[in-house]
Structures are given as structure tokens and as C-alpha cells.
């Protein structure tokens, strides 16, 4: 997924419903390190934090949440798997 699409989805579907977070925690992946995201963090005064490298315990909560979300989406999208993104808004 491109940074622009991810940023738009965060603002339109997450931040607009749940409010602006004070911080975003990511693993060591670089998905949320683009210039666009740096500007988004600055604009909304969001602190970007990373989990400690080589410490899988820190990623456990995220991985569990992702697994739960994927299971929920696969069940909700069983009739039309290509429309999973429409079900995502109802599940987050």
C-alpha cells in the first residue's frame, strides 16, 4: 500500500472517528517513515515511536490485533473477498 493511500485512510477512517492520537507506535518497518508521514506527524503533533529491535514481545500485541482483525475481515468478506476494505471501517 502506498504512503498516500495509507495516510488518507488513517485521516479519513481512523483519526476522524477516534480522534488524533498523541503517538503512533510502529515496529522497525519503514512503512510509516516516508516524508509524507513525517509531515502528517508534525501537522497533527503526533509523536512517532518504534518498538525495540529484536524484541518480539513488543510486537506481540500488534501481531495479535492484526491476526484478530484479519480473521474478522475474512469472515465478514466471505461472500465477496474483493470488498474487504468496505468491511474494514466497520471492524476498526
TrEMBL record:
One of its GO terms (biological process) is DNA integration. Residues 1-92 form the Integrase catalytic domain. It comes from the Eukaryota. InterPro entries: Integrase_cat-core (IPR001584), Retrovirus_Pol_polyprotein (IPR050951), RNaseH-like_sf (IPR012337), RNaseH_sf (IPR036397). One of its GO terms (molecular function) is nucleic acid binding. Gene3D superfamilies: Ribonuclease H-like superfamily/Ribonuclease H. PANTHER family: INTEGRASE CATALYTIC DOMAIN-CONTAINING PROTEIN, PROTEIN CBG26694. This is Gag-Pol polyprotein. It comes from Trichinella murrelli. The gene is gag-pol.
Amino acid at each position: 500500500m502506498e504512503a498516500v493511500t495509507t495516510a488518507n485512510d488513517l485521516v479519513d477512517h481512523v483519526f476522524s472517528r477516534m480522534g488524533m492520537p498523541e503517538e503512533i507506535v510502529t515496529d522497525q518497518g519503514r512503512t510509516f517513515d516516508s516524508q509524507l508521514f513525517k509531515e502528517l506527524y508534525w501537522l497533527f503533533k503526533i509523536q512517532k515511536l518504534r518498538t525495540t529491535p529484536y524484541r518480539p514481545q513488543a510486537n506481540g500485541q500488534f501481531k495479535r490485533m492484526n491476526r484478530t482483525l484479519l480473521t474478522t475481515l475474512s469472515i465478514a468478506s466471505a461472500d465477496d473477498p474483493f470488498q474487504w476494505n468496505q468491511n474494514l471501517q466497520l471492524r476498526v
